């Protein structure tokens, strides 16, 4: 197991280096950041001086090596737009994004898995057909449209929930802030978390249903019925456990997607997270923020995939034997 983890860590470092290289190479063609730093009246000498101070005149390889060396120390440079360290800017907005992603993931899992199990075990009931219709709506509608509809119904028409912002937050420590401890913070989380987690919820529901139906048709389930095991033991002790193996894969990838693609939801609800900061960086050609954001998302994907691989051995003992043999 230790050798397996070490191999995964080495592969993860390679992935992060590849993402950093691609991002750094792409952003060289986004535009000239000097135009966003100086005014229109700035002279050519001033522009040249700024380019030299930022190291933009150095060869690409030198710039990339310098960036990787600093990134390893969590130093992503200074934002061209805000004139502040990128690490500080991302750290201020990371709690909002992670909090939203966490609630969305919990919503998707807590609602999606039971719905999938129910639609597989009671597939001819009217409630199962209703769940499947809801899942089609969740898969078909784009995220921004779902957010706008929820705002119109629950914020504008009914006035039950806020339509934007994070609400009142409580500071914990030097940089972490949370809305879990305030009423306005919890109310502000409801609409954006449903908007962000609805697609993942419907995807998990349909995947659990399909896998559950397939597992229930296998020979060992028929043998369990022949032995006289209770329906609860068969469905939840045997069928559901084997259903969770592919579900863990998709759930892990979707959790990374929730964090990466929270940009749309954060824009619709004006959620003060990293996604909004990234969009502002794109508009202003703020290369340090863009590169740091993509590298952070890649790091989160790598960590999640490593956790998923380790969970496999817990859920499926056959994979534990394979890992030991490797």
From TrEMBL:
It is found in: Cell membrane. InterPro entries: BPD_transp_1_N, MetI-like, MetI-like_sf. It holds the Pfam family BPD_transp_1_N. SUPFAM superfamilies: MetI-like. Residues 94-312 form the ABC transmembrane type-1 domain. Its main location: membrane. It is a multi-pass membrane protein. GO terms for cellular component: plasma membrane. The chain crosses the membrane at residues 12-30, 100-121, 133-155, 175-199, 244-269, 289-315. Keywords: Cell membrane, Membrane, Transmembrane, Transmembrane helix, Transport. One of its GO terms (biological process) is transmembrane transport. Belongs to the binding-protein-dependent transport system permease family. This is Peptide/nickel transport system permease protein. It comes from Chelatococcus caeni.
């Amino acid at each position: 197991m230790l050798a397996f983890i070490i191999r995964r860590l080495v592969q993860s470092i390679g992935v992060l280096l590849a993402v950093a290289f691609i991002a750094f190479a792409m952003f060289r063609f986004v535009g000239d950041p000097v135009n966003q730093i100086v005014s229109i009246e700035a002279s050519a000498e001033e522009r040249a001086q700024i380019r030299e101070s930022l190291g933009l005149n150095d060869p690409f390889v030198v710039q990339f090596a310098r960036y990787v060396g600093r990134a390893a120390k969590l130093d992503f440079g200074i934002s061209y737009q805000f004139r502040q360290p990128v690490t500080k800017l991302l750290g201020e907005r990371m709690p909002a994004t992670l909090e939203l992603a966490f609630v969305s993931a919990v919503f998707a899992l807590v609602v999606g898995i039971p719905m999938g199990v129910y639609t597989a075990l009671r597939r001819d009931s009217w409630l199962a057909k209703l769940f499947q219709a809801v899942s089609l709506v969740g898969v078909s509608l784009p995220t921004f449209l779902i957010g706008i509809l929820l705002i119109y119904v629950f914020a504008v028409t009914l006035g039950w929930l806020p339509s934007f912002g994070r609400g009142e937050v409580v500071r914990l420590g030097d940089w972490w802030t949370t809305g879990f401890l305030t009423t306005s913070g919890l109310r502000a989380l409801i609409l954006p978390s449903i908007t962000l987690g609805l697609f993942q919820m419907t995807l998990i529901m349909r995947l659990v249903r399909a896998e559950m139906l397939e597992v229930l048709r296998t020979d060992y389930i028929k043998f369990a019925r022949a032995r006289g095991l209770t329906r609860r033991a068969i469905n939840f002790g045997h069928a559901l456990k084997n259903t969770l193996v592919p579900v863990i894969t998709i759930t892990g990838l979707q959790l990374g997607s929730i964090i990466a693609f929270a940009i749309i939801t954060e824009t619709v609800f004006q959620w003060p997270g990293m996604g909004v900061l990234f969009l502002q960086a794109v508009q202003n050609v703020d290369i340090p923020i863009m590169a740091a954001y993509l590298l952070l998302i890649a790091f989160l994907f790598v960590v999640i995939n490593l956790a998923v691989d380790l969970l496999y051995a817990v859920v499926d003992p056959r994979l534990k034997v394979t890992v030991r043999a490797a």
